[in-house]
Write a structure and sequence with these properties.
Blueprint (H helix, E strand, L loop, with lengths): L1 H8 L5 E5 L6 H14 L4 E5 H7 L8 H20 L3 E5 L5 H10 L3 E7 L2 H7 L4 H6 L21 E4 L5 H16 L10 E2 L2
Length: about 200
């Protein structure tokens, strides 16, 4: 029992965190990595920040305090997933550097992929219509616009997604990810995505 508790508190499996502004390509890359893991029969799970918000039936907002609370939720969920021997692929904005550094303390095999995309390109893409609403003053607390997004200083991999195609983004990420999972036995049939 104590061993299970210790494993939950400090998981040893790798966790891959795909971070960046809204519309930078986080969910897209996370799902492509999920498919690539599945091809190699490695147990994994996508933990998407937007989807996790829908799991909790509450009114958590997007101000700094709410965003930090959301990050703590993601950390707890990721710890639980990793404690089961399943590789978490986390897609989250992760706007604060101290939260990112805190993750490195919790997850010894934390790997951070920062999707660097200019705000102009993110605004142009805007699949959720958030930037348009922010520009029209309909909503507030949009990272990169009326609240800051602290650019990561210690990311393990930086991908310029305003210049890369989806395929190029995946292959660049996979080249680095694969080096870190080569020691994982590839004879699993379990691979999951959560919403």
């Amino acid at each position: 029992m104590n061993n299970r508790q210790n494993n939950f508190e400090r998981p040893t499996t790798h966790s891959f965190w795909v971070i960046g502004l809204s519309a930078a390509g986080k969910s897209t890359l996370a799902r492509m990595l999920f498919d690539r893991f599945q091809e190699h029969r490695i147990p994994c799970m996508v933990i998407d920040g937007d989807e996790v918000r829908h799991v909790y039936d509450d009114t958590l907002g997007f101000d700094e305090a709410s965003r930090r609370k959301q990050t703590q939720r993601i950390i707890r969920l990721t710890r639980w997933v990793a404690s089961q021997g399943v590789v978490p692929i986390v897609a989250i904005m992760h706007p604060y550097e101290d939260d990112r550094l805190g993750c490195r303390e919790v997850f010894p095999n934390y790997y951070e992929i920062f999707l660097k995309c200019s705000l102009d390109v993110c605004v142009e893409r805007d699949p959720k219509g958030l930037y348009a609403k922010a520009l029209n003053k309909e909503i507030h607390n949009i990272a990169g616009m009326d609240i800051p997004y602290e650019e990561p200083r210690h990311s393990d991999l930086v991908l310029a997604t305003d210049r890369l195609s989806k395929g190029e983004m995946l292959e660049a990420a996979w080249a680095e990810v694969k080096e870190r999972i080569d020691t994982i036995p590839c004879d699993y049939s379990l691979s999951r995505r959560i919403a």
